Amino acid sequence: EKSAGDLETMQGIKLPITVNCEINVLLVAVTAFGFLTRLYGIQFPRAVVFDEVYYGQFVSLYMKRVFFIDESGPPLGHMIQALGGENYHVMSPACYFSTHYFNAVLFTGYLGGFDGNFAWNRIGAEYTSNVPVWTFRVLPALAGSLCVPLGYLLMLELGYSHFAAVGASLLLIMENSLIVQSRFMLLESVLIFFLLLAVVAYLRFYNAPNGSLCRWSWLILSGSSCAFAVGVKYMGLFTYLLLLSLAAVHAWHLIGDKTLSNPGRRHVPPPLQGKVLVQVTVRLLALVVLPAIMYLGFFYIHLTLLNHSGPHDQMMSSAFQASLEGGLARVTQGQPLEVAFGSQVTLRSGSSKPVPCWLHSHKANYPIRQSLVVVSPPRPVRHGDIIQLLHGMTSRFLNTHDVAAPMSPYAQEVSGYIDFNVSMPAQNLWRVDITNRESDRDVWKTILSEVRLVHVNTSAVLKLSGASLPDWGFRQLEVVGDKIYKGYHQSRLWNVEEHRYGRSQEQRERELELKTPTYVDISRNLTFMAKFMELQWKMLTVRNEESEHKYSSLPLDWITMDTNIAYWLHPSSNAQIHLIGNIVTWTLANFALFVYVLLFLTYLLRRRRKIEDIPKASWEQLVLAGVICSGGWAVNYLPFFLMEKTLFLYHYLPAVTFQILQIPVIVEHIYTHILRSPSHQKAFSGVILAALCSVYLCYCTFCPLTYGQPELTSKQLASLRWKESWDILFRKH
């Protein structure tokens, strides 16, 4: 028998319990079309397509946990791609936890079974059976598909109608260039997805009522998406800065909102006085602090996973290389930490440009002049000590004097001293200057210390000039004494890599010692922050030698699509895939941008004259849409004019995505605020319908070049060359 308390509790519950669910059929429909256009047949072709040859190499290195540097961007994009081919490995429990934790965050499990064994050496190479093509391509395809509903939601958050939202979605669905870039193991679709998600989430936060608890979750999602965007490619930074600027303006307006707080009035309750500070602080944490922590986290996982020596080791410092398994770590294991008088060392330049360089000489006979053994206990070399450097194989002292260097006449010649009876005495004394010392009596440490060697007689600093010597110098890099030195420069820094304590003064025994390390267990592991800072600096400053590419282009070529890229060509037929956009959409986007600028300037000037053509709310809506769409186009396009790198048409895709979203903004504004007459609006609707039909026809026309099938005849391919600058490939049978 139930108690009275139980009955009262049950009476407080309303039965039956129901859940209301609203489904936006339009949003579902455009999302379905987005998935269809991006996911259909992504396994075709089963061959390497354009930059898959580039990104695939990094995936293979991830599978083998081999360290690499990609100067084009942070590691998150490669980690996402590696998820598609991840396989189980035997590893330590700590690494096992780190790997599985990251995979759980980004995906529910391992998708493929790729072992990393594939030669990514040429475009068009057929994939072997061990390469999971579908799983490699599905993540970029999913990201590209989800850009369609994000475009729809962005229009709604900007305050425009569902008609405008559907129009934006249709334009994105039928954009051939976005389809092509989404269907392969490339990163632009992933970048665009996170950029749109960050903007939509922030606008959802901005438009949500103040009392809503889920409002702050949108802000956190926006900050996280910004971190993901920057983590995929550095170009995401510019949209992030645009969003930060918008958030800063909104925060400034918030501070001036007297309805929230006014400390000068005593009747304002204390909770309201602190509300502004709380809201501004939360914005700062979500949009600045959280992305910074996440960005560090990407590199932490990257460096944790890639702990084996690889092809890019020599670009890093000796300390960084020694922290990796294999390579230099295998050579330097067990070396003494402190350099002592009599130590046998190899000196590496702190600069890796143009290539890593070690202080080197050539073999010749010369008498030994002084003791070359380490006393017991060792007498360490400290900052400020005067030393001589003797080449172990030639017995010549490192020397410089006031004679011009052969390739760098502004600097002094550096050589192994030989007495040719020319009344030029040896000048082979060098002062040790430890630049990263903690005190003035710091000991010179193997690998860890960065040292400048200052010539005692002339005050010149031992420096790698970067110039190559002629044939008589074996084409090796020139080392000079630099008398004009100011500030910090890596070419003047040296560090000890290999190190052992000398035990004999005999030439033959000393040569044997050079090949026999002294085993002393010393830990030289760098902290994560030290490795992060070095890796970040290398990624931002080190650039591979750029070469002209057949399909490289200039930013001015992108606006009118005067260029294209052949992504793949069938080895025996005319089937091919090209990066070519929907030229009708791109033309409309350029026109929409021009109209927006014209409207904005006109309204701005007239409002300055106190003439308000449109309501204040409509003006603010137009300005916000311009910041997002036109501003998004500008920040993703204009920086390329300042970049000294090989550029391609796909670099323009983030910018053109925002530019396409400008089209429905302008269309709805013209329809609502400029065309007052119903007859004019009806005629304009016909123009809109005709434009959409033209976009569809253009999309269908170029579908064979977008999907690579069906195969076209040479005559059909020639008819698709709408511009003389396009490079359409076809075989004449």
From TrEMBL:
The protein's name: dolichyl-phosphate-mannose--protein mannosyltransferase
GO molecular function: dolichyl-phosphate-mannose-protein mannosyltransferase activity
Keyword match Membrane: yes
Main subcellular location: endoplasmic reticulum
KW Cell membrane (keyword) present: no
Top-level taxon of origin: Eukaryota
This protein's GO CC annotations: endoplasmic reticulum membrane
EC numbers: 2.4.1.109
Residue ranges annotated for the MIR domain, each copy included: 378-435, 439-499
TM helices/strands, residue ranges: 17-36, 94-114, 134-156, 163-180, 186-206, 213-231, 237-255, 276-301, 579-601, 622-643, 649-671, 683-707
InterPro entries, A to Z: ArnT-like_N, MIR_dom_sf, MIR_motif, PMT-like, PMT_4TMC
Family that this chain belongs to: Belongs to the glycosyltransferase 39 family.
Any Pfam family hit: PMT
Subcellular localization, as worded in the UniProt entry: Endoplasmic reticulum membrane
Pathway info: Protein modification; protein glycosylation
Source species: Electrophorus voltai
Keywords per UniProt: Endoplasmic reticulum, Glycosyltransferase, Membrane, Repeat, Transferase, Transmembrane, Transmembrane helix
Membrane topology field: Multi-pass membrane protein
Catalytic activity reported: a di-trans,poly-cis-dolichyl beta-D-mannosyl phosphate + L-seryl-[protein] = 3-O-(alpha-D-mannosyl)-L-seryl-[protein] + a di-trans,poly-cis-dolichyl phosphate + H(+); a di-trans,poly-cis-dolichyl beta-D-mannosyl phosphate + L-threonyl-[protein] = 3-O-(alpha-D-mannosyl)-L-threonyl-[protein] + a di-trans,poly-cis-dolichyl phosphate + H(+)
